[in-house]
Design goal:
The chain is of the alpha/beta class and 248 residues long. The strands form 4 sheets. The chain has a 5-stranded parallel sheet with strand order 2-1-3-4-5, with helices on both faces. The protein has a 5-stranded antiparallel sheet with strand order 10-9-8-12-11. The chain has a 3-stranded antiparallel sheet with strand order 13-14-15, covered by helices on one side. It starts with 13 loop residues before the first strand and ends with a helix.
Length: 248
């Protein structure tokens, strides 16, 4: 977690503000979010707030810097509900998860279109699912920017099938509708791609698990009909990665 007194650098990942006046619940929410996002290999930043005024001051100063607000509806001074209403009036579409001990707030809360309501006492598995659902539906990166020296290549993640060496110290990136060339070798390229979605399966191949339909001892079966070889060196890692990705 980051010190809320410092300026927030909106560089990458999933940015969450947790606004809860009970310090135990606040710390536990942050802990569950940290554990969940770390397990999923999602870059994140979580900043805790004890009241809505503190959070509002950051938003007024720095703009739309958060992807998700986890707000207690009933706070000591300004309520989380009031803050949410003001944000929507400003056309701020940040994702909101409300936490509350009062079911009477549910009907009014839906007016500001939260992604989820969580009732106290909180069930931590429900929080985990709510955070991951918001990430997957609203914030998961859809583009990847590859950079080496002066060379920059921007690609849609869901269009990348796999990559292979080009025979000249670079790589050929096979997309659904074209082939892109990049100057990095296969090992360097693998380190640039989102961990958990892309897997090295051979000295000559890295594949996008989004386009894998099945796996055998010898190869990945891709959804375009191709088979990408899996070497013995990478077999166990590929099996585990495929199962983990399918269960996300």
């Amino acid at each position: 977690m980051r010190d809320r007194g410092k300026e927030v650098e909106r560089l990458y990942g999933y940015h969450i503000a947790v606004c809860e006046d009970d310090p135990f619940i606040r710390d536990r929410i942050c802990q569950v979010c940290e554990e969940t996002l770390s397990e999923e290999k999602i870059d994140y930043e979580i900043i805790p707030f004890s009241d809505a005024e503190q959070l509002e001051a950051i938003l007024d100063k720095e703009g739309e810097i958060f992807d998700l607000l986890i707000l207690d509806i009933k706070l000591q001074n300004k309520s989380g509900m009031k803050l949410a209403e003001e944000l929507r009036e400003k056309e701020n579409r940040v994702s909101i998860i409300f936490v509350t001990g009062y079911e009477t707030y549910l009907a009014k809360g839906y007016e500001v279109q939260p992604v989820h309501f969580l009732l106290k006492p909180l069930k931590w598995e429900e929080l985990r699912k709510a955070v991951l659902t918001d990430w997957k539906l609203n914030h998961r990166p859809r583009m990847i920017l590859l950079e080496k020296g002066r060379r920059k290549l921007r690609l849609p993640l869901d269009a990348v099938l796999y990559a292979e060496p080009d025979g000249n110290h670079g790589t050929r990136i096979i997309l659904k509708d074209r082939i892109a060339e990049f100057s990095a070798g296969i090992t360097e390229l693998t380190g640039m791609l989102p961990e958990g979605q892309f897997i090295r399966c051979h000295n000559s191949y890295v594949v996008n698990l989004e386009h894998v339909e099945g796996v055998s001892w010898l190869s990945f079966q891709m959804d375009n009909g191709e088979k990408i070889p899996i070497s013995r060196k990478y077999y166990n890692v590929c099996q585990n990665a495929f199962i983990s990705y399918m269960n996300r």
